Amino acid sequence: MKAKSILVKSIAVTALSVSGLVAINNMNSQTAHAAVVQNDSSVFTAQSATTVYNNYENPVATGQTLPSNSDWKIIKTAYDSKGQKWYDLGKNQWVKANEVVKHVKHTQPQAQPTQNTQSTQTSSAVTTSQKQTYSAPQTTQKSSSTYTSSASGSEASAKEWIASQESGGSYGSRNGQYIGKYQLSASYLGGDYSAANQERAADNYVKSRYGSWSAAKSFWQSNGYY
Prior knowledge:
- By secondary structure, this protein is α+β, with helices and mostly antiparallel strands.
- It has six helices and twelve strands.
- The strands form four sheets. The chain has a four-stranded antiparallel sheet.
């Protein structure tokens, strides 16, 4: 009986030892799974709208989703206590690895640069279109419109003086609604910004308001405008 008792105790001790080893192994396994591993800048594709979580240990959806068919850089890789693999996008943004497709490459995602390039091209196209729409009427008007100012002598000198103060003598000068060599309003020019029309409109404006360019110059010198 004593021998049998010793044998039973030995078996029990052995069983406890084995159980302890299994428990230790399970703990080690979970610890290894929960460790965060630095990732080498790999990239993954969200093939469909993918939920973003605040962390991988006790994940809570942030309300954000990755758009379908978008590429994202992986900052870190981690495993939770259940062995679930997670990807860290940085700034407490995590996604489940089984919901995306990882690429075996070490380059930055190309989606955003491509979008920027397209945006730049679109912006450039719009600007070009605007320039063409704006310049075409000018070219037509310049070729079909001529005007010779009647100002001469001191009147011509006063006219040139005002032009130099207003725009430096440039027909292409623009300041808000004021346009051209004499900085007349767009509405006063009637949409015709040709050099001939600017000269004609300036003569008409000064004649109706001041009577002469000399009088307009005197007013400008006192008030800083005419």
